[in-house]
Design goal:
Two copies of one chain form a homodimer. Chain A is of the alpha+beta class and 152 residues long. Chain A contains seven helices and five strands, in the order H-H-H-H-E-E-E-E-H-H-E-H. Chain A folds into two domains: 82 residues, Winged helix-like DNA-binding domain superfamily/Winged helix DNA-binding domain (Arc Repressor Mutant, subunit A); 54 residues, Dna Ligase, domain 1. A three-stranded mixed β-sheet of chain A has the order 4-3-5. In chain A, a hairpin with a 5-residue loop joins strand 3 and strand 4. The radius of gyration of chain A is 18 Å and the shape is globular. The two termini of chain A are 19 Å apart. Chains A and B meet through helix 3, helix 4, strand 1, strand 2 and strand 3 of A and helix 3, helix 4, strand 1, strand 2 and strand 3 of B. The first copy, chain A, binds a DNA duplex (30 and 30 nucleotides) through helix 2 and helix 4.
Chain lengths: 152, 152
DNA sequence: ATACTAAATAGGATTTACTACTATTTGTCA
DNA sequence: TGACAAATAGTAGTAAATCCTATTTAGTAT
């Protein structure tokens, strides 16, 4: 996993983010920085619109499209990620044989894979007690073989 | 895990589905059955619109809204589920400390939880080779404490 | 069989999330 | 400091999901 930085202060994160942008040849615009700051300042899981509302207090005329675009860029460079279970048209599954899902973040394709060992994951008691769990799975995200080639 | 039925024939699944509907006091409408049949007849992960197109060959004047509604009812009774990584507005996460997500399928709230043991999940080589994995996590779905009470 | 009632549906309108487009602005680097 | 590619604002457009209402229908009682 290659998230920008964990267990670091706000300033360290910011510095890490700026380095990450430069590494990917991305410009350090005030909008980009404001959006990143907003995102790491909350422990909720905001939608693009929610981020938009928050950032507007700082940059009043920022556009929603910029927020959307920027959030996607952040996920692409690993400075943020999308919460699984959200995004794009809903896809359904007949829930047949036990399997896990891999989502290609480029083309959106969902690929099943199966591995018995993943089937029985132990969920800690404090979590068990807190929620009524209907489904547990291991979930992978990345590039499928087709999209991985295009990335090079 | 309480999916309707795994490792069973088409007819068994259908019978199980009908029983499941009755159990939940749901009527067995032709639309509902057709949608369920369609869903378990494919190993892709269709969107509501894709299911709609397929079911239309059987019930030509079915409405998209019905398909949507029905697919959601199916997930509520455990006869199907939504593929994680899809659905509703995208939510973002600053990706700070390592954590897992629990999604309440009722209110849509995403709750973080943390358990070290879940951190390092072994992904089999045949999967590793097939994709470029950027993120792996254990993902839970169900009812949060608030919604679980309302369900009773 | 027949009639009744709550549940479900069709069809269309509306809302919401996201993306596309274009003119303008702004970081970055020579 | 000037040039240029990248990024942005603003707005228009598209796609997905939901809402609304009149009508139909499955399940049950008679």
């Amino acid at each position: 996993m290659d998230t920008v930085n964990q267990n670091s202060t706000f300033e360290e994160k910011l510095a890490g983010f700026e380095a990450c942008c430069r590494k990917h040849g991305l410009k350090l615009t005030p909008q980009r920085i404001a959006i990143y700051k907003t995102l790491i300042s909350t422990d909720s899981h905001p939608t693009a619109d929610e981020v938009y509302q928050m950032v507007r207090t700082e940059i009043s005329n920022i556009s929603l499209d910029t927020v959307n675009r920027t959030l996607l860029t952040l996920t692409e460079i690993g400075a943020a990620f999308q919460v699984e279970g959200t995004g794009q048209p809903r896809r359904f599954d007949g829930g047949l044989e036990d399997h896990q899902h891999f989502l290609c973040i480029k083309c959106g394709k969902v690929i099943d894979f199966q591995h018995d060992a993943l089937g029985d994951i132990h969920i800690p008691d404090e979590v068990q007690g807190q929620f009524k769990i209907l489904r547990k799975t291991v979930y992978l995200e990345g590039f499928c073989s087709v999209c991985a080639e295009k990335e090079l």
